From TrEMBL:
It comes from Paenibacillus alvei TS-15. InterPro entries: PcfJ. This is PcfJ-like protein.
């Protein structure tokens, strides 16, 4: 079973497939791979059972139905031998554990792909075993010094070309080539394998869970996982248990989330010293602090530890629960923003917590990081408005949310005023250039931001969204009015590059003959006197 694998690896492995493994495959992993193939000889029907390999006379067995084999008592699916079965292959992926033959403290695991192929001669079908991966987990000696204290984990796998090679890290084949087949793992098998080894009390049982319903996971197009299928093959857990003696104690103390994050590669914020020789060194806490942490009766995460030590290290010690409430300030964007504010650390943290704890604050803030971001934006507004950011009354308003809403309005008003001044300035520059009157119609530039908004509102088009472009000189916006109704929106014109690019009325309506004739006169008079522009583009505003 381990052909092609280096000798220092195979020395740990069993020399042949055990009866126990073979039985597990036949009875569990491929337990449903039992068929009675029927054939006819004249008026007689015969059935062949693939489980007990007996053939006998049958009566009325119908294709696709389930019947009990009269010879072995197995419940089998009936298949008419004359029907096509080019896809009739049953398979599964199993991770099977054993004791090491070489080291009584070590355990090994085999990732085995098994299948039964019925596409050919159904009387010659045998269960096929393919070793996809092999693992060796060797624990360290907790009483030893130096690197001997920590164990090792090795993995060898089969590549695409059927060659074995040793990997640089441990991983589950269920995340790779074995995503598709149904997966099986036996808790009884693991219990026997770890019995009498340091892994016996590692707490592996805490990390097995089963799917409650069919799920689509893995694979390019999704792969179905059956209800009751194990979610893990435990190879990552045993890697950690082998390498870090503290694993057993972390599990016993209820800190399983630390190991879960380690297994999934999510990181532990540097909160755990995995090679620590005592639990105080592993958790970086005193015995009294560990006792306090365990008394919380909650699922403790690495972030609890990280945030607690983060504040303690910076001279702001606080209870574990409060530190966790403030944990978003201790890492990633939260800590980055807090540093960028360049304000006293202790005062800032206390202020953020105060705002987060205000009655009704949960209407505006979902965690302390949302308070921090609101505060950052508020201070940026204060600088835009020229407020005295050296004053504590400005820096730390009593009600941050209310104060920020006020600065938002002030900044918007200031920006709107500045934009409007630019619009007015453009009107002054363009009025003499574009103002034109003929046959009861008049055209002129937009005179203010408010006028542009009103134009868009009354004509039901979006010219108001062009205000900034107009103010920046990227386009010229003109209004057509009836001379008798100079303040009532009628048509809107956009001029760009000396050309009329669009002219629209109510709900983006096209030009009437009257308006088109007026626009052509406007073009002749104001845009060019040498050549009439006949093609007026009709793109909606």
């Amino acid at each position: 079973m381990s052909l092609g694998i280096p000798k220092d690896f195979t020395d740990h492995m069993p020399q042949q497939i055990s009866e126990e493994l073979n039985s597990y495959v036949i009875e569990e992993a491929l337990g449903d791979s039992r068929y009675i193939f029927t054939r006819r000889a004249g008026s007689y029907q015969y059935g062949y059972c693939t489980h007990c390999k007996n053939e006998y006379s049958t009566k009325g067995f119908r294709h696709g139905k389930t019947e009990m084999c009269p010879k072995c008592g197995s419940f089998c699916t009936v298949k008419a031998s004359g029907r096509g079965r080019k896809k009739l292959i049953d398979d599964a992926y199993i991770v099977w554990y054993d004791k090491s033959r070489k080291d009584p403290k070590s355990i090994v695991a085999h990732g085995i792909y098994v299948r039964r192929d019925y596409t050919g001669d159904y009387k010659q079908v045998e269960t096929q075993f393919y070793v996809q991966a092999e693992y060796v987990f060797t624990p360290g000696d907790p009483k030893a010094a130096g690197k001997d204290r920590f164990g090792t984990a090795r993995m060898i796998r089969r590549d695409y070309y059927q060659n074995f090679y040793e990997t640089s890290s441990i991983f589950s084949e269920r995340d790779s080539v074995m995503r598709r087949p149904p997966f099986y793992l036996s808790e009884d098998n693991i219990s026997k394998a770890v019995q009498g080894t340091p892994f016996q009390y590692s707490g592996w049982e805490e990390f097995i869970s089963y799917r409650l319903f069919d799920e689509w996971v893995g694979g390019l197009f999704g792969t179905t996982r059956r209800e009751g299928e194990p979610r893990t093959d435990l190879v990552k857990f045993f890697e950690i248990a082998a390498k870090y003696p503290c694993t057993e104690y972390l599990v016993k103390m209820g800190f399983t989330s630390f190991i879960e994050r380690k297994i999934n590669g999510w990181g532990t914020y540097g909160a755990i010293h995995w090679r620590g020789t005592t639990m105080e060194k592993v958790l970086r806490l005193s015995k009294a602090e560990i006792k306090e942490l365990r008394a919380l009766n909650i699922k403790v995460t690495p972030l609890h530890l990280h945030s607690y030590n983060f504040y303690k290290k910076r001279g702001l010690p606080m209870p574990f629960e409060k530190a966790h409430e403030l944990s978003e300030l201790t890492h990633s964007d939260g800590w980055k923003i807090l540093k960028q504010l360049d304000l006293p650390f202790e005062l800032s943290v206390k202020y953020i917590y105060k705002q987060f704890s205000r009655p009704g604050a949960n209407k505006h803030y979902y965690d302390v990081s949302s308070v921090l971001r609101d505060w950052r934006d508020y201070l940026a507004d204060c600088k835009k408005l020229g407020m005295d950011t050296g004053s504590n009354a400005v820096l730390y308003p009593n009600n941050l949310h209310t104060a920020h809403q006020k600065t938002i309005k002030k900044v918007k008003y200031a920006e709107d005023q500045a934009l409007n001044l630019r619009v007015v300035d453009r009107y002054k520059k363009l009025n003499s250039q574009y103002r034109f009157e003929s046959n009861g119609l008049i055209i002129r530039p937009a005179a203010s931001s408010a006028e542009l908004v009103q134009e868009g509102k009354q004509l039901s088009h979006c010219v108001g969204g062009y205000t900034k472009n107009y103010a920046d000189g990227n386009c010229d916006l003109l209004f057509i009015r009836r001379v008798s109704e100079p303040d009532k929106p009628f048509y809107t014109v956009e001029v760009k590059g000396g050309k009329v690019v669009q002219c629209r009325g109510f709900k983006n309506g096209a030009m009437t003959p009257e308006v088109k004739a007026f626009v052509e006169k406007f073009i002749d008079e104001k845009l060019t006197k040498k050549k009439r522009i006949k093609a007026i583009q009709g793109v909606a505003v």
